Description:
alpha+beta, 7 helices, elongated
Amino acid sequence: MAALVKMKKVISAALACGLIMGQAACLSGCGEQPAVADEVIELIEPTGELSGSEAVTRRNLYLARAFEVMVDPYIEEYSYEEARNFVPTGRKIGDRVAAGDIIYRANILSHEPQMEKLSEKLAGLEESYAEYYYEIRTKLNDQYWDLKVLDWELEQVQDAEPKEQSGPAYDAWKKEEDKAIGYYNKKELDIEMNEAALRERTELLYLDYDYYAKQLQELQRQDEAGDLRSGISGQIVYLEACDEGEQIRAGTVVASVADMNRKRIVCNAIDSTVRYTIKEIYAFFNGKRYEVVYDEESSSSTSSVFILQDPRGEVPVGSYGNLVLYSGVREQVLTVPSEAVHNAGLEKYVYVLEGGKTVSKTVRVGLTDGVYIEILSGLEEGESVFLDKSAPRAVNTAALQRGSVSVRYSQTGTLYYPIEFDVGGDVQNGTVTFQSWAPYESVVKGNTYTFDRLADAGYMPMKAGDIIAHITVLPSDIEKQELIQLENDLKRAQERLADLIKKETESDEGLTESSEKLIAARQEAIDDMEEELAGLREDYSVTDIRTQRDGLLYYINDRIYYQQGGSNSRVGISVVPGDKMDRNYVYARMIDNSVAYLLLPEKALSSYVGYNMTMTVSYVNWEYETVAKEVPVITVNMDKYKHALLLDRELLQDINIYKTSYQSSFNKQTSLEVDGKVKVMNDVLLLPEKAISMVNGSFGYVNVLKEDGSILPTSVVVGGKYLNEDREYSYCVIDGLTEGMTICWE
């Protein structure tokens, strides 16, 4: 090595001397100088063969980067521009839908009272018109009869006309005829006026009815816009979980549909200046290359999107792989190590052995990957260039083989029930008095749970109709009088309706369209009174507060809060027998345990959890057994969470969360263990980490042991790094090596 250092000093001195002499010659203007390319610098030492050398060899050169990616489907998201109330549709995550199918439904909040008023207005118009029409038609029918009588009387008078056209008898008859004609004309005029009034009222009705009906139709049309329809055929991958009537904020993504056949790859944004320098780009999944097309429309300043070309459907959504970018590629070109090339001004040269002497040769170079450099001219294949390093040795060897790799994903997920509901007294009338909380007993999977205090029964399953508390409801003196008055009004209305039906059916015309409308209007009024009366009687007969539907008991509201002083000053008073309660008092809060997610934390590996994947969830059931179940991965739009596991109804009813709590706005969490495989790749070449010298995170060199015993440093593009069962890391090979090659390392 001392000889090498000494030789470097001699070479440097010779170069410096040569440069000084060249400059002096240029300044003096003497003679024509030979071209540098023709110069051969003779070294003093060493002589003989090079102490460190490498042959000029053909190899592939890559300037490559590989990005870890997953295959995502094309997704469309749906939201509302204004706040709305959720309306159940029966859709669920995982359902297949066609373009145009309703996937979500919600009514506009402000429309409900308007639509109700308009409906009442239209019903009132119909009812008042039916009353008026019946009244006018009854009067006209009487007038038509009277007119017939007057016409008959006039005919009788005219038939008695005297033969003599003069005299007292004729004058008396004439007066009688004029009188009969006058009665007839007056009655005819009355009929015309009533008919005109009826036509006018009918026209006004049509105008008013059309005006309000159009308003109602417009609101209904806008409400129908609350029917979000899928713009594509695909699979529902997200639905905002809401209870019926729950408010949805404007702009909230409430549904997402994925087309699993339109596969996309998303990575961090690739700058346009970099993208335009890319010579080749493809995707690498399970040992195979796939073409990709840049999707400029879907890309943004934070992410670049590529469309995966997979006509045979070999790569399912959720597959993990690599997006490989080449900014430079040279295949089987002459190369030497980069450190063998030196600079002399603008020219490049190397040292070779010729005739037992070490001499420099000027070379023209091309692409370099930082380790090797392409030789365009100046050297021939097989020549040896001088290096200041020893040749590699084959201390350890291995044959490249294909295999499968994956990373174990083990996390703790947070159980989240998105739908909660209140259990209150559905009492609209009377004075409510609290009596007691109901003791509770539940039998689940053969285990009996008995509670003297309902508050101790938190997170126990309850069925619709189970009793929460005992109460009494009594009418006040005024309400008693109102009840009696309503009963009397109902009786009179029923009698009036019976009289009307009898009169109309016994008339000459029988039941007409107008009379049928009037009968229907009066019957509707009777129905309303009967419904109101039934509601009052039902309220006054209430003795229990019961759950309206199945779920988990979550919270008992055993405190009454009274306002004292400032708006933030409240004192909690225990609910005791005899307390007067608000009619809308919430006695308990429950969880809808038919819908729940297991939220996955946003840790490093969660970026490799995606669509079309499953994970194993472990939980303890009501029989105190540990159960493991495969569940699908979905997306959620919740603060820091973007991935979750969808727990089905069977699992949710089987899981025992008694005496535990879950993620909500004002309580703790229930955690379940999640396990699975991510970053899965099959049929890939596996390269031991210790066998590669990395240049960057995606590229390096491996020593390949050839059949003749020589060692060829070979460039290789690699993807992710995996830990095998022997606790040793391996890379998956993307490019540069083939199965069966023998590699070696020291």
